[in-house]
Amino acid sequence: MNLNLWLPAITAWTMVLTACCAAAVLGRMVTGVVLTKDAAGFVAAGAVASMVLAWLWLRMFGTNYLWLLQGDGNDLLYFFGGAAWASEYPQFVAQDGVSDAFNLGTCRMGAIIVGRDCPVYRGGTYTLMSLVGSLLPQATANQLRGGMGIVGPILVAAFTPLVWRADALRVSRWSIPRWLACTCLALLVGVSTGMVGAVANGNMGTAFGAAALAVLIAWACASADHPGLKAAGLGVAAGLAAHLYGEGAVYACFVAALGVLNDAVRTRRLHWIASGGVISLACFLLTENVLLLDLIESLLGIGGMVTAMKWRAWYLAASPITWFAAPFTGIQMDGAQLVHPLELAGGFVMAGGILLLGIRRSRWLVPVGLAFLTASLVLYLERTQYEYGEHKILQLLGPMWTTLLVGLSYRALASQSAATWERYCALVLIGVTGSVSAHFTWQAHAALLRRIPERALTLRFDDGIVDAIRAGDEIVVDPSAVMNTDRFIKQDYATMLAHVRHARVLLSKRVDDSIPPHTQFPRTDTFRRADSPDWLIRIRSADSTSVLNQDLPVQYASPGEYELISLKGKRPVVLSASGWYPCESGHCWTSGTYELEAFVPAACSMGELTVRQTLHAPPEAGLVDVSVNGVHLSKHPATPSGVLRIPLPRGWSTISVAPEWSVTSPSELGQSSDPRKLFAAIEGGNVRCIDAGPSQKR
């Protein structure tokens, strides 16, 4: 991850792989073996856990028939773009460099969050996810989400010290291999409610950060023959968590301090609090190095960005006692039922199990410390009613609590001195943990399937863009036929796919009542800077398409999603701009004066814009005024329906059509309850090249 700060991830991964191969060869030459039997077992555990988790995510999000299935959050776009950036460029770059390379503005514009001086930091997650893009150059968004399988080896690393040092787990006469036990423990945490909830909601950085925090809490509990090495490992793991998820630095440093304190109490060397703390802090700072200031800014900035927004929350409105079960129960951000009663009951059982086993196994310090952190965060949420923070702390704390629970349970099962009731209790807790996680995962899967009509893209979504668009192309996007979530998803991913291929999307300055996509702000009003548009992407839904440019032949259609149209040669194009209401089937109403933007290529002598419109309640003597590029062009009688023909010069133009009367609404005229003031229903608009007359050629 530090290499990726200065080098593209593809180069960094190549260097790491080469170093691993060289180390293996050197180990073979020196010791005669590449890996010991135990080490090979834990490597196998990491591989198995990775494959199982990757399969789960791929299956959960319909990878075999969907390009994207998006939950309530839209954060996956950031990780899609971030992984593409990390693969091709270093991450520790100035915002001007980010803007110049991808043409999506700076991270504060909301389309891509990479580079220095960002309000949030997710660089380590981008580095890991770039590995998927390197192996699958045309990976879908769902396949990229399947990269969460990478947490398998991370979670195996969490339990390796525990399983390595504990007695072998025996069931009747059979001994369970350590690698298999480690795999099962890792999978229990990998499918915990916090992890599943984060991935389902598209919060990949949160999920990766939670996995690193699970490593920290497990290591904090583990006994160590060399406390100095453990303190160093805690510092590095805390740095890893901060790399993956910037806001996780606070949690990570607290847990690392708990680990040092635990060793000081266990060895009865209180001076180790200072010595171990210095070692751990030094390793953390060394791991973070130049990112430290960015992390501080991330911690200070994220709260102000989201505090004022409304988020789905449940525990803040429920009885305070539910917080005891919350880390185990989680929250379904997409579900109609945010917290299921059965999961809540299981959460209380798991919370009680932690208390019982922690006292019984004399592992009370770290659970008590984590309880203090949890209580502090909950108190802050309750006092401030900070809705965004509710699901975030559950997604970060939940995997840590689950790690403690399954770790203590395994210790009870593997211990030769454990009482019979203690082993049965551990089995029950592991069973409850698995049941709650399975039910939560199924609920999340079902909730996401219900989102398919409004939040899914078909498997062939990127075919036309990938096959046709090349670096340097200019793509005009017309999103007028869709609104809100539909526009959010289709415009954002079409734009991101184009820009990671170094093409350039152009938008008009259209303003309507739709929720603006992430890519709207950095690309709005860029059509005026067009040099020579190569493509038009006409975004559509299953039953609605734009009323403009219908005379242009479609080169590629992704049914119900978009149409790709070539503009090369003598093909002008027109877009709606300001003054438009959301489009309806077959027409778009305007609110009064409305504007269009058009581009006539240099191959044309000039262009002619044709607009078919029906006016709402025009006066008999009314006139319609037409201006081009701010210059009055003509006046037309206000006939109820008709066609405007407007000559255009070459290049970009803005066309204004204005009524010379005060427009009214249907409700004012007693026609309906519609309160909108209406001028014209636009039923079609096209631009064509025309030959200039002799006088115009002079």
TrEMBL record:
Keywords: Membrane, Transmembrane, Transmembrane helix. The chain crosses the membrane at residues 6-27, 39-58, 144-164, 176-198, 204-222, 234-258, 270-292, 313-332, 338-357, 364-381, 393-412, 424-442. The keyword Hydrolase does not apply. This is Glycosyltransferase RgtA/B/C/D-like domain-containing protein.
